[in-house]
Amino acid sequence: MRTPPTRSLLFVSFCCLSLLILGGCQSAEENSYATATTSVTPPGTQALTEAPRPQAIADMMKARGEQDQALPTLRIISPANKAVVSGSTVNLKLELGGDLKGYLAHKDPSTGKGNHIHVILDNQPYEAYYELNQPFEIRNLTEGKHTLRVFPSRPWHESYKNDGAFQVVEFTVKGVGDASKPTITRDGQTMASPAAPAASVSATPAREGKDFAPSNAGAFDPVAPLLSYSRPKGEYKGEDADPIMVDFWLSNAKLRSDGGEYRVRYTVDGSEARFIDTWKPIWLGGWINGKHTVKVELVDKDGKLVDNGGYNSTTREINVVR
Ligand SMILES: [Cu+2]
Predict the structure, then answer these.
(1) How confident is the model at residue 205 (pLDDT cuts 50, 70, 90)?
(2) What is the pTM of this model?
(3) C-alpha 116 – ligand 1 centre gap (Å)
(4) Please, how many CA atoms are within 13 Å of residue 67, restricted to the half-sphere of its CB?
């Protein structure tokens, strides 16, 4: 059978078109590959470098007298270790002691700053607790096991690292159910609100505290090596964003340069990991605007993660806004 000439022409045209398309695709792939290899260092790439303690903080330290040589200790009065509590709110009560050298937790109303305690529920970001003469309400607790970690901090969020500064308790919450919700009558009127009685809300100032996100304790061993992530956290603006402090609390472990074998590994935005071998804060400069992830981990001498209920590898998102 003979193919009519017009059909042959169409067929040849189709082949040419196919080759063109294929060729086009091929070169597009090569282009994208080339783009990928040449864009390893696009403009605005972050190159973080360790920076000295900022002068503004050095000045604050001078103005504080001996406070930075203080050896503050904390005791968790409530909840008691291994306590079983009912309801979704727990009152945290602390006793501050030790060689304080003028250290006291208090927020200066004019600056909104001051010494404070870092309070960590499970492995959530810490919350600041300023006025220890009244309890800190840990609100919105879910049923089950929880851990609370506390340690004293300076106005710029650098923790005190002396013996006795860090405390941890485990407790269990039961009977959350409806106890956290107001009792509603059949016609929809609120009869009582156990969490915040309407009559006392206006009479008493709001307690320090926090509605925490739902979480539970990890399978945690309080006498095993433990890294408690503290900083960075939240949003950093202006000069607070450069440099930014990385700070943590270390229990039951010594780092390599402190006579031990452990290392703290940190990773920013999933880039190459770096190590901290002395237990002290570091300041990192060179952040670009936007959201960043900071991962801080406790590893052994072989670089293997030392697990402790999931607490020894923590990733937080921070936001840099200049
Ligand atoms: Cu703080």
Answers:
(1) low
(2) 0.80
(3) 6
(4) 20
